[in-house]
Specification:
Elements (H helix, E strand, L loop, with lengths): L15 H5 L8 H4 L7 E3 L3 H4 L7 H24 L10 H22 L9 E9 L3 E9 L10 E6 L13 H16 L11 E5 L4 E5 L14 H4 L2 E3 L18 E3 L7 H11 L4 H14 L8 H20 L1
Antiparallel strand pairs: 1-5, 2-3, 3-4, 4-6, 5-6, 7-8
Length: 321
Amino acid sequence: MIEKISSTSNCYPKRLKNFFKKGIQYTSYNKFVPQTERAVVGNIPIEIINLFEPKEKKEKILAFQQALSDTAKYVRDVNEERMIDHNQDSKYCIDAILKKRGISAKDFLNKKLKHVLPEGYNADFEYVNYGGFKDVYKLGLKDNNNNKIMHDKAFHVYRYLSEITEFGKEHGNCAECNLWIYLSYRAGHPLNNTQFTKHYISDLHSGYSLTEFADKDITKTKNTLNVKDKLFIRYKDKDHNRIIHKKIYDIGGFEKTPLYTDDKMVIRYYRQIANRTSEKEKQQVLSQLETKIQNPKTPHRDKMIKGIELFKETLQQEQKR
């Protein structure tokens, strides 16, 4: 694991997306993220990409990403100047300062996008709210007829980018991006129709992420992803971050349950049993696997055993509820 890499080692992950798929809540983000040459995960929304001509698409995508990165740094200046004490100042004062900052950031962003977007297109940018680890702004885009070209996005600007805190594994710039990627990968399908808002892009060096904005027009929740039973993590922060329009918009505050494992082979065998639709089928698959592990030469036998144990432990917990 990355925690065991010495300070003199160059074995840092080259692609954070692939690394973030493997597990969550590392204690060493501040060791390897700064060493990553390009710490961008994901991409800008397809509605924006479709505005660019094929021959200039790559250049324009990178330019748009850079504009978002520069805007995040511009907005964060308000905290670097220590104009705000989030623990002491009143919410009224903080909101007033950040709202004003959002207005100036809109001009800043549009200047950055002047030669990126088609003529007449402009970005909307306004302050929404702040939390313990970030400030949230609403990002929109309009064409030359003042029509929206996409559903609004939530632009999260993180604080404490280089500060190691006791909450750094679960909250903030790196941990939240990590969990978005992990959830998408483990779910095996886009999160649009689940209780989670969609994640588009994060830049861990400049400290921002872009997700779907949770309002009445967001994609409805049709299939709830049971992360506790399938991924062995749970949301412990819902009392502080209420769910909006049946969507979890703030991914910070999840924690691993005692049964959590990031071993995909163990999860694979666990799901072979747990994903069956009837108890009879579950017992049939369980018996088949238990027969296989009787042979010491069975491939992945140790993983199979752990998958079976994991399934039995979940059954015991269900019986205690």
